[in-house]
Amino acid sequence: MIRDIGVNTGLAAIIGTDIGHSKSPAMMNAAFQKLDMDAYYYAMNIKEEDFGTVLRALPKMNFIGLTITIPYKIEVMQYLDEIDPLAEIIGAVNTIRIRDGRMKGFNTDGEGFVRGLEKDLGVDTAESTFLVIGAGGVSRAIMTVLASRKAGAANPGRIYLANRTVEKARALCDKLNAQVCSCCVPIGLDDIPEYIREADVLVNATNVGMPPMEGRAPLDLSLLRSDLVVADVIYNPEKTALLQEAERLGCRWVNGKSLLIHQGCMAFGIFTDREAPAEDMRKAVFGH
Ligand code: NAP
């Protein structure tokens, strides 16, 4: 049962322009209920011309945190009092902690994804060699955190980054090699057959596999091997063509649910300073 909202209820919200379908309210409210906290999370569609006005008002109210989604992850940075160093390098913020009228921004997408590999599949992210396909927003977050795991590692594996627009892969690798860890190598989609041989972990960070590209894969599936770990950021469908083939071959695999739940747990911790009840959050979103 959700408690009544009173003058002391801590508020949190997801802000975007088209978020009626968001799974975050169910996930976060399940966690507040489980821990019997006087807090409530809801979804706010805010028009682009109103975003700055709304955001500046929220720290003056009972807000403890915000989730920021498309199209505001970059624009929001100008309104914050402080930004976590990795979010600064990623160049996007998706989670805000509000305390004493001040807002601090974080990016939980990359860390959520990497924790999924580490905790759900036991991957040694510092020493594994990665082939990541896609150099868009979610890839920027994943690549930054993967590179940060390799900084200072005894035997850091490389991260090969393949993208349809290879200049975007090159720009991201140049930035991470200079600012985080010199381990990133840009490649074209045509180079995948050569570099996948070295990879321990294959990551799909593109839209390829979700509608309207459902049934398609971001690479030639005959290149998969049973000893590859395969991760897809997509969770709708739960098993993309890539993951179906990975499962058929007996690969260890993980889909975008893992990212969603781990980044949600991180955000809950940022909002409340408490450990998130991960299983309850997963059940609230996926029913199992
Ligand atoms: P984005 O910034 O638009 O980037 C899209 C990426 O996909 C780019 O690298 C793009 O290549 C590539 N791409 C698109 N169509 C392609 C095609 N036909 N062939 C080859 N490459 C293609 O999107 P994003 O925000 O990074 O999101 C990417 C995916 O992550 C989406 O499927 C999204 O649903 C998923 N996601 C999941 C979660 C989660 O919680 N599980 C969270 C965030 C995002 P170019 O650079 O060449 O255009």
Overview of this structure, please?
- The structure is a single chain.
- The chain is built from ten helices and twelve strands.
- The protein is α/β, with parallel strands linked by helices and 288 residues long.
- The strands form two sheets. A six-stranded mixed sheet has the order 2-1-3-5-6-4. Strands 9-8-7-10-11-12 form a six-stranded parallel sheet, with helices on both faces.
- The model has no long low-confidence stretch (mean pLDDT 96).
- It binds NADP nicotinamide-adenine-dinucleotide phosphate.
Summarize the helices and strands and which ones pair or pack:
Blueprint lengths: L9 E7 L7 H11 L4 E7 L5 H7 L5 E6 L13 E2 L1 H6 L4 E5 L2 E5 L2 H13 L8 E4 L3 H14 L8 E5 L2 H14 L4 E5 L3 H4 L5 E4 L24 E4 L8 H9 L2 E3 L1 H17 L5 H9 L2
Parallel strand pairs: 1-2, 1-3, 4-6, 7-8, 7-10, 8-9, 10-11, 11-12
Antiparallel strand pairs: 3-5, 5-6
Helix pairs in contact: 1-10, 4-5, 4-9, 9-10
The structure holds NADP nicotinamide-adenine-dinucleotide phosphate (NAP).
NADP nicotinamide-adenine-dinucleotide phosphate binds next to helix 5 and helix 9.
Task: Provide tags for this entry.
288 residues, alpha/beta, Rossmann fold, 2 domains, 6-stranded mixed sheet, 6-stranded parallel sheet, 12 strands, 36% helix, binds NADP nicotinamide-adenine-dinucleotide phosphate
The CATH superfamily of the largest domain is NAD(P)-binding Rossmann-like Domain
| Count of domains | 2
- Runs with pLDDT <50, length 5+? none
Q: Numbering strands along the chain, what is their spatial order in the largest sheet?
A: 2-1-3-5-6-4
Global mean pLDDT:
96
Percent strand: 15-25%
First-to-last CA distance: 19 Å
Considering DSSP H and I runs of 4 or more, what fraction of the residues is helical?
25-40%
What's the shape?
A: globular
**Biggest pleated sheet:** 6 strands, mixed
Query: Mind telling me the CATH class of the largest domain?
Result: Alpha Beta
Unique bound compounds: NADP nicotinamide-adenine-dinucleotide phosphate
